[in-house]
Structures are given as C-alpha cells and as structure tokens.
Amino acid sequence: HPYSKGLLNSLPSLTKNNRLIPISGNVPDPSKPPKGCAFQPRCPDALLKCSDQIPRFSELNQFEKGRFSACFLY
Which residues lie closer than 8 Å to 25 by C-beta, 6 or more apart? Predict the structure, then answer.
C-alpha cells in the first residue's frame, strides 16, 4: 500500500545511515477532506478514480488471504 510504504520509508534506523524519505505534500485539513481517497493528494501511485471515489475494504481488495487494503491498486 502506498501510504504504508511512505510511513516505512520515513522511519529512522539505528543501524543504517540512510536519509529519511518524507511523505510529500501536506496533511489535508480534517474539516475539508479531499474528495475520494484521503491519501490521494499525497500518493505517488494515485489513479484517476482515486480523486473522486473512496476505496473500500472488499473481496476485490484482498491482496493476500485474510489481508485487505482500502486501495484501488490492490
């Protein structure tokens, strides 16, 4: 999931000297959430439908047995 990848890339490491990779953009104003997927404005893999449809957990979003994602990529 793009948001999970972004979070993992932004974590510091005690064993590596890698630079942190921040999630681009700004957190949306909670009083004015974006239409569609809440992460879409900051997602490097956003699809056109992400800007006007909200992904839901469903059998269509099962990427592994028992694991679901509310993302159109999976």
Answer: 41, 42
